[in-house]
Amino acid sequence: MVRTVFLLIVSLALLGTPLLQGCAVNPVTGQRQFVLFTEGQEIQMGREADRDITASLGEYDDPELQAWLDDMGQRMAAISERPDLPWTFRILDDPTINAFALPGGYIYITRGILAHMNSDAELAGVVGHEIGHVTARHGVTRVSRAQLAQVGLGLGMVLAPELRPFGEAAGAGLQLLFLRNSREAEREADDLGLGYMSAGDYDPRAVARVFEMLGRASGAEDGDRIPGFLSTHPDPLERRDRILEQTTGDDPIYRGSRDDRAGFLQRLDGMVFGTNPREGYFRDGAFFHPEMAFRMDFPQEWRTANARTEVQGVSPQQDAVVLIGLVDEASPSAARQAFLAGQGITTVSRSDERLNDLPAASADFRVEGDGSSFRGRVVFVRHGDLTFRLLGYATQASWSAREASVGRSLASFRAVTDPAVLNVQPRRIEIVRTEGEMTLEGFLQRHPSTVDAQTVGVMNGFRSGDVIPAGTPMKRIVGEGPPRD
Fold first, then answer.
1. How far apart are CA 283 and CA 335, in angstroms?
2. What is the CATH number of domain 277-422?
3. What distance in Å separates the CA atoms of residue 83 and residue 303, rounded to the nearest whole number?
4. Average pLDDT of 80-103?
C-alpha cells in the first residue's frame, strides 16, 4: 500500500493564519507581485505540505544519493535570490517522471525522473528550474490568485478525478490542489534555472536533453504517467529549442562545462525502476502485497490505486469505494468499536465470524450528515502482527446496487503463501559500459533488458540506429518486476 496519486500544491487554510492582502516585491524581478502571504507563512505552507507529501510518497531509501542531491541543491540555492530560505531537497520513492517545488524552498525529484537522466548537469537543470519557481514565488502567486477567486481552498483534499467524491476516505491532513503555472512563469523558471546551474559551472545545454527526453517519454513503458513536470508545462520540445538558442552559438547567454555522465550513472546503479512490487501490486483485478502476505479482489471495471496508506478502488460511476488500510488496535473487535463510535455513524448489524480463517469483526453501518448519506460495510481482520481495515461504502441511493460487489470484495481478503507472490522482486537499473562501438539495437542484443526497447532508448538518450561510442556507460533494466495482467 504505497504510492499515492495526489500532488501538487497546498492551501494555506491549514495554517489558520490571517491573509495579508496586497502586493510584495518579487525577489527576482524587483517588481510588484500580487501575493497574500508573508515569507513566514510561505515557509509554514511548505513545511506543512512537506510533512504530508513525504508521508504519502515516501523518500527513496538511499541516504548517500539523498545527501548528494541535497548538496547540489544547497549550493545552487545559496547563489539564488533567496539564499536564506530553509531549502530542502528530497528524492521521492515514486516511479513517475516528475519534479516539483512547494513554497518555502521544498524541492522534490522522483526516482522515476532520475532513472531517465544521464548526467549531473541534467539533474542540475531540473533542480535549478524548481529553485526558480520558489525564488520567483510562483507557487505563492498561484495559491493567492486561487484564494482570491474563491475556488475553495481549505474545503478539503482535491484528488485525482476518479477519487474526488471520496476525499475524506483517501486520507485527511494535507489539502492539495492542482494549479498550473503560466507559460510566462515556466519560461522565467527555465531562465532562472539556467542561470543557477551556469553559475555552478554545469553545462546548461544538458537541459535541452531533459526536454528531449520528456517529449519522448510519454510513449515509453513506465513513462506514460508524467504528471506535473510535463502535463502542466508548455511543450517540452518548444522549450528545448528555446534553451538551445540560449546555450549554443558563438556568444551563448548561459555557459558551463560540467556534464558528468559516468559519475552520475554510477550513482543510479541498483536503483529500483518502475513500480516496486514489494510494496503491493494489482494483477487481474486483485491486489497482492508480498511484504504483508495478503491478497484482496476488487470489483471488475473499478479504478484502483495503490496509495501509501491505503489501497483504493472506485466504481465507474464514482458512487462507491473500497479501501484497504491499517489501524492501531490490536484486536478486530476493539477496532470495530472505535470505528462505530465515530461521529454520525449508526450501526445496522454486526458479525464476529472469521474471515478466511483469520480473526475478524465486521459491521454494516449508515452515515448521515451535511446533507448526504452513505451505507457501508467495514471488516477488521487480524493477519500476522497487523490489524487491517477493509472498508466499502456507497451513497444511500446506490448501496442496493453496490452492496453485493462490495461484499464480495471485502470477503476475498486472505493470506497468501504462494512463493511466486511472496518472493517477487522489483526491476532495477544496472550500469554497463559498451565493449565497442555499437548501435542501440546492438546494445540491446548484447545487454538485454526486461523493459521494451523504446524505454531503454529514452532512458539512455539514444534512438534506434544511433551509434553508441565504445566505453559509454549505459543503463539496462534487470529483474522481472511485478507480474503483468
1. 29
2. 3.40.1000.10
3. 44
4. 94
